[in-house]
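Subject: Predicted fold for RNA polymerase subunit sigma, 45 residues

User T.R. writes:
Posting the sequence so we have a shared reference for the thread.
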Amino acid sequence: MATDFNRGIMKFDDADSPAMIAISAVLILGFIAALIWWALHTAYA
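User M.O. replies:
I've generated the structure tokens; pasting them so everyone works from the same file.
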């Protein structure tokens, strides 16, 4: 089933599936957490 969600940067089928959304969210939040951790450790080193 084709939806309008697989248009922009996510140009593949099932780009809006719950599994892909969960993986993307974990990667993005993990990257943000790593940046915050690095910033705190760098600022107070």
